[in-house]
Amino acid sequence: MMKYLKNVVTLQYEKTKCKGCKKCLDVCPSRVFGFIDKKAYIIDRNLCIECGACEKNCPHGALKVDSGVGCAAAQIYSLITGKEPTCGCDGEESSGCC
Ligand code: SF4
Ligand code: SF4
């Protein structure tokens, strides 16, 4: 699994806001999240490619990430891993899609 440089990932998670919907687990292409005691938790933040999908899909504002490189990161990740690029956005620019 590819990792960004250690400790520079901008992902922030506020556990108190999490309602346990598991959407972040569904949309994260890097499997950053696990789930325990009805809440998400971060398995390894250095796996995050800052695609922004978790922030966009969390209905309770528990996740924040600086997704400035968005789909570019997903494309690079795809090239390296040979997997389909995915950022979890819906493809609509009007909704803030990258
Ligand atoms: S999407 Fe948000 S509310 Fe849902 S499990 Fe993840 S952090 Fe919690
Ligand atoms: S920004 Fe993307 S890669 Fe990082 S935790 Fe959120 S969904 Fe996963």
How would you write the strand order of the largest sheet? 1-4
Query: Would you identify the regions where 5 or more consecutive residues have pLDDT less than 50?
Result: none
CATH topology title? Alpha-Beta Plaits
End-to-end gap: 23 Å
Describe, in plain words, how this protein is organized in 3D:
The protein has helices spanning 23-27, 53-57, 70-81, and strands at residues 12-13, 33-36, 39-42, 63-64. It has 98 residues and is an alpha+beta fold. It has one domain (12-88): 2-Layer Sandwich (Alpha-Beta Plaits). The strands form 2 sheets. A two-stranded antiparallel sheet has the order 1-4. The relative contact order is 0.23. The model has no long low-confidence stretch (mean pLDDT 81). Bound molecules: iron/sulfur cluster (SF4) (2 copies). Residues 11, 27-30, 32, 48-54, 65, 88 line the site of one iron/sulfur cluster. One iron/sulfur cluster binds at residues 11, 27-30, 32, 48-54, 65, 88.
